[in-house]
Amino acid sequence: MPPLNTSRPSPATFLLMGIPGLEHLHVWIGIPFCSTYVVAQVGNVTILAVVRAERSLHEPMFFFLCMLSITDLVLSTSTLPRMLCLFWLGAHDIAFDACLTQMFFIHSFTAMESGFFLAMAIGFVAIGHPLRHSTILTHACITIMGIIVVIRWVAFFSPHPILLKQLPCCRTRIIAHTYCEFMAVVKLACMDTGATKSYILSMASVIGPCDAVLVAISYAFILRSEFRLPSQEASFKAPGTCGSHVCVILVFYSTAGFSIFTHRFGKHIPAHIHIFIANMYFSVPPFLNPIMYGVRTKKIKGACS
Prior knowledge:
Radius of gyration: 21 Å
CATH superfamily: Rhodopsin 7-helix transmembrane proteins
Number of helices: 13
Number of strands: 3
Helix content: over 70%
Distance between the termini: 58 Å
Order of helices and strands: EHHHEHHHHEHHHHHH
Structural class: mainly alpha
Number of domains: 1
Largest sheet: 3 strands, mixed
CATH topology: Rhopdopsin 7-helix transmembrane proteins
Strand content: under 5%
Shape: globular
Strand order of the largest sheet: 2-1-3
């Protein structure tokens, strides 16, 4: 194995090792991940096609759902096909630039997913005020919210590949992970990376929890509005509807949060547990979102039937 250049990041390939300690189970582990990927692709593409074809669905919340579906498609496609090649074909090599590109899509679209969860929660709160709903969620408002989510992504997560591009990478080219995760790659640098790690972890530790808290507050307002409805049946349905949405959101934030805080505090957590859970936040939410937000929505089911 040739030594990497110590003065700048090498363009040589890295080696993704998968899940440490579970290499003998890679073929079997790949099966559920492949299943979730196929369902996520079919579900999200179907939602986009149905909303585009059915004019009655050209409403604010379905536009947000389309944004979330596009994010899910990109997030899952940027990780799972490459991971399945590793599990099933033993394709461990990944070029340096391809590694940085994958890292950019993973972290940026994870942040966008969080932003769209928050935008949808705010939209549900607005729907709870029917008299002002049309004046609150205008097309201009939806566009502005979408732009804010994208701008936040560009501002906070574009530096990821740029920072790594400047680091001399000379220790090893083995990445003990299933994909090019920032903290796993930055450990390969042969210089002090404390400031870089602190910046990235601080951004992730601020943005994620803030979004999660605001989403929780939004759903608290939604439940309060639903329970005040005169119809007793509507009040009984509210916990079930919100509960399914909250379950998806909890899976996303809990798995992403576990990965972030393990890098900072969980030094004694086994690597295979950390990596396995880290793989779930870009496979499970894209799989569940079309089911919880799409299949369980009466208008989408009606348009499909």
